[in-house]
Specification:
Layout lengths: L16 H20 L9 E6 L2 H4 L16 H15 L3 E6 L3 E3 L9 H12 L7 H13 L6 E6 L20 H11 L4 E6 L16 E4 L4 H9 L3 H9 L4
Parallel strand pairs: 1-2, 1-4, 4-5, 5-6
Antiparallel strand pairs: 2-3
Helix pairs in contact: 3-4, 5-6
C-alpha cells in the first residue's frame, strides 16, 4: 500500500461534541425562558442583591455546598435565581456584595439567562470574602442619595452580623445596621424587602421580622410565589379584596 493513507468517501454522520454541548445549552436556555414567564413582575423598581462572600462561594473556611451530595454552592443557586429575576423585571438594580458592593453596570437581557449567570458569577468573585460591608454600602447609598426603592430581594446564606462596625474600611463605625435600615424604611416606607436564606447556617442575620422584612428559607420555584404575594401594589391588593363575596 506504500504507507499511503486513503480518505474514504463513505463517512457516516458523527455528532460533534462541541455542537452537542451548544445544542444542550440552547435547549436549557429556551426552557428557562419559558419557565421564567411564570415569574411575576413586581410593582415598581427592583433591587436584587446577591451574596458572593466567602461563606457562599466556598472560600470562607467552610463548606458552601447546598448538600453533602452536591458540588453546587450557595453562590451558584443565589446567582442563578438573581439572574432569573433580573430577566423578568423591567427596572432593575443588581448588586453583588462581600467586602464591597459591586454594581452590575450593564444589564443585557438579550445575552440570555445562562450567559448572564456565567458573567455575573465571575464578577462576583471579586467581591471579597466578608459579608457585611457590601450590603451595608447599598443601604447607606440609598439613604444618602434619597433613592426610591420599591423592592429589595436578597439572596444569601444570611451570615450577616448585627455588630455596629460597618464602615470599617474608613476605620470608623457608622452605627448599627438596624439604625441604618430604619432610615431606609423612613425614606421608603412601602418598600417590599425579602431575604431569601438559601442555606441555613450557624450565623444570625440582621434581617428579621421586627424590621418588617419577609424571610424565606430554602430554594425552589416557591420563592417566586412568595415574591409575587409580597410584591403586589395597593391596587392589586384592593382588587383581591373586592373579589371576596360576603
Amino acid at each position: 500500500m506504500g504507507g499511503r493513507r486513503s480518505t474514504s468517501v463513505v463517512q457516516f454522520e458523527r455528532e460533534n461534541t462541541v455542537n452537542l454541548k451548544e445544542k444542550v445549552l440552547y435547549a436549557l436556555e429556551v426552557a428557562m425562558n419559558i419557565s421564567c414567564e411564570n415569574i411575576p413582575k413586581l410593582v415598581g423598581n427592583v433591587a436584587i442583591l446577591i451574596d458572593h462572600s466567602g461563606s457562599v462561594r466556598g472560600d470562607g473556611g467552610g463548606a458552601s455546598t447546598v448538600s453533602a451530595f452536591s458540588k453546587t454552592t450557595t453562590a451558584n443557586i443565589g446567582n442563578l435565581f438573581g439572574c432569573m429575576l433580573m430577566q423578568t423585571q423591567g427596572n432593575v438594580f443588581m448588586g453583588l456584595f462581600g467586602d464591597k458592593l459591586i454594581t452590575v453596570k450593564e444589564i443585557d437581557r438579550k445575552k440570555g439567562i445562562l450567559k448572564n449567570n456565567q458573567e455575573i458569577y465571575k464578577l462576583g468573585g471579586t467581591c471579597g470574602g466578608g459579608t457585611e460591608q457590601g450590603i451595608y454600602d447599598f443601604f447607606e447609598d440609598v439613604v444618602k442619595n434619597k433613592i426610591r426603592v420599591d423592592n429589595v430581594i436578597i439572596f444569601s446564606d444570611m451570615v450577616i452580623g448585627r455588630e455596629s462596625w460597618y464602615g470599617r474600611k474608613y476605620d470608623t463605625s457608622s452605627g448599627s445596621f438596624q439604625s441604618l435600615f430604619k432610615k431606609f424604611k423612613v425614606l421608603n416606607p412601602h418598600a417590599n424587602v425579602v431575604s431569601v436564606d438559601i442555606k441555613q447556617t450557624a450565623g444570625t442575620s440582621v434581617f428579621d421580622k421586627a424590621l418588617g422584612v419577609t424571610q424565606v428559607s430554602g430554594w425552589s420555584d416557591k420563592v417566586f410565589t412568595v415574591l409575587q404575594s409580597m410584591g403586589k401594589g395597593y391596587k392589586d391588593i384592593i382588587a383581591q379584596i373586592e373579589k371576596i363575596k360576603l
